[in-house]
From TrEMBL:
Residues 251-436 form the Carbohydrate kinase FGGY C-terminal domain. Keywords: ATP-binding, Kinase, Nucleotide-binding, Rhamnose metabolism, Transferase. It comes from the Bacteria. It comes from Deinococcus oregonensis. Its EC number is 2.7.1.-. Residues 6-240 form the Carbohydrate kinase FGGY N-terminal domain. This is Rhamnulokinase family protein. GO terms for molecular function: transferase activity. CDD domains: ASKHA_NBD_FGGY_RhaB-like.
């Protein structure tokens, strides 16, 4: 049998509407519509153009309707950001961007009021300044008083598609007010911060059926009889669902603007060691936990290239010709904000560490990619140590899986085999959960292996392990 499904993938820099056709144990993914995304600065704050994204989604759905009978549609997006609705279901204000300056100092204030141990023991989530917990703590009290419901970004789009205001477990788990042990909201934590838990919707599992498209949406898009099915709505959870792994002893890197470095575990691991390492326990499909760490990904190169305006393929090819040199700490707070001065920030970090200063785009890019590889290798070692789970193979999925230099350096730095692909992991995971559900993960990943072109990288004997293991970098 053949079935067709639509995946809507909203990323921090772009969005896609894709058609997935499942036939004969293979999935064919066709991107129907692409559109840009990014922060909109207004009076020192940063926002998402959420209504512009909705317009693009409707357009993409209308294009997809031309490809024959569609079974279902589902949305995934980046994590942590949300919309507030009033009692009538209307959006109260626009959606804040997680890189907005409104969050400056908020995490530190909350952590001063509540101990790290109290927050982490309740949630098991990595401390990041843009977590939803701190975003709510930054809200004006009158805004929260007028709000009736909080919906994470993909849940907001599902609400607009079908009228069902719920949240899905993987994205709920990213907020830092979800209890991974109970599978419910960490209500006592919210009470301690005077954040009304009544705002929070029911949590459902990936694969849940939310019902048909609203009549007005069906009319606008020419989609009839289409159901809305929850994928793993956190884009990383969808990407990990599409990791083409077999057996045990593997880790993943969802490689894009961020590098999400992690393993799958049957239960959350929340203890003093994972707190000290600032690891996060986020929900995956089929009741699994994604024990991982957010590492800065290609964001630094992307911001540099906003200045250079170079072809990425050529940029990476030129970087591969540059000898390894300085290293930076890609997770330094100095690299978090956007800005045209990103190349200068990389140079300043090298200068501060007493290392050679890269000058050309190729040299700066090589510095960043080597640094990302080192950081990923460090996190892999930490995950192995805290879990007791041996990591032999690293699966790199997402856009970064196309960068041969980066994948080879991850293999060299970690001393582990790297398997790269699929590129469209998030779309693939979204579509397969819609089509097959989440209960038979082995069958789902078998389809991924049958449908994907994978590339293998092995650690090179010529790579200087002391360079990666002994070199240090400074903030």
């Amino acid at each position: 049998m053949t079935s067709r499904h639509i995946a809507i993938d909203l990323g921090a820099s772009s969005g896609r509407v894709a058609l997935g056709t499942l036939e004969g144990g293979k999935l064919h993914v066709e991107i129907i519509h692409r559109f840009p995304n990014g922060g909109v600065p207004v009076r020192g704050r940063l926002y998402w153009d959420i209504l512009g994204l909705w317009r693009e989604v409707l357009h993409g759905l209308k294009l997809a309707a031309q490809h024959g009978e569609i079974v279902s549609v589902g949305v995934n997006s980046w994590a942590v950001d949300y919309g507030l609705l009033d009692e009538h279901g209307d959006l109260l204000n626009t959606v804040h961007h997680y890189r907005s300056a409104r969050l400056n100092g908020v995490m530190e204030r909350v952590r001063a009021d509540l101990s790290d141990e109290a927050i982490y023991s309740a949630t098991g989530i990595q401390f990041l300044p843009f977590n939803t917990l701190y975003q709510l703590a930054a809200e004006r009290p009158d805004h929260l008083a007028r709000a009736h419901r909080l919906l994470m970004v993909p849940d907001l789009f599902h609400f607009w598609l079908c009228g069902n205001a719920v949240t899905e477990r993987s994205n709920a788990s990213s907020t830092q007010f979800f209890d991974p042990r109970t599978g419910d909201w960490a209500r006592s934590l919210l009470d301690a911060l005077n954040i009304p838990a009544s705002l929070l919707p029911t949590i459902l599992e990936a694969g849940s059926d939310l019902g048909h498209l609203l009549p007005e949406v069906a009319e606008l898009t020419d989609l009839r009889g289409v159901r809305v099915i929850l994928p793993a709505t956190h884009d990383t959870a969808s990407a990990v669902a599409a990791v083409p792994a077999e057996g045990d002893n593997w880790a993943y890197i969802s490689s894009g603007t961020w590098s999400l470095v992690g393993i799958e575990t049957p239960q959350p691991i929340i203890n003093a060691r994972t707190l000290a390492e600032n690891l996060t326990n986020e929900a995956g499909i089929a009741g699994t936990t994604r024990l991982l760490k957010n590492v800065m990904g290609l964001w630094i190169v992307q911001q540099c290239n906003e200045v250079w305006k170079l072809d990425y393929g050529e940029l990476y090819a030129q970087a591969a010709k540059v000898a390894s040199g300085p290293l930076i700490d890609p997770d330094s707070a100095r690299f978090l904000p956007p800005g045209a001065d990103m190349p200068q920030r990389v140079q300043d970090a090298c200068r501060a560490a007493g290392q050679p200063v890269p000058h050309t785009p190729a040299e700066i890019t090589r510095c960043v990619l080597d640094s990302l590889a080192v950081r990923c290798a460090q996190v892999l070692d930490t995950l192995e140590a805290v879990s007791g789970q041996r990591i032999e193979t690293v699966h790199v999925v997402g856009g970064g899986s196309q960068i041969g230099l980066l994948n080879q350096r991850i293999a060299d730095a970690s001393g582990r085999a790297v398997v790269a692909g699929p590129v469209e992991a998030t779309l693939t995971g979204n579509l397969l959960v819609q089509a097959l559900g989440q209960n038979d993960v082995a069958a789902l990943r078998s389809v991924v292996r049958a449908s994907s072109e994978l590339r293998q990288y092995t650690p090179q004997a010529s790579a200087s392990q002391p360079f990666f293991r002994e070199r240090t970098y400074a903030d």
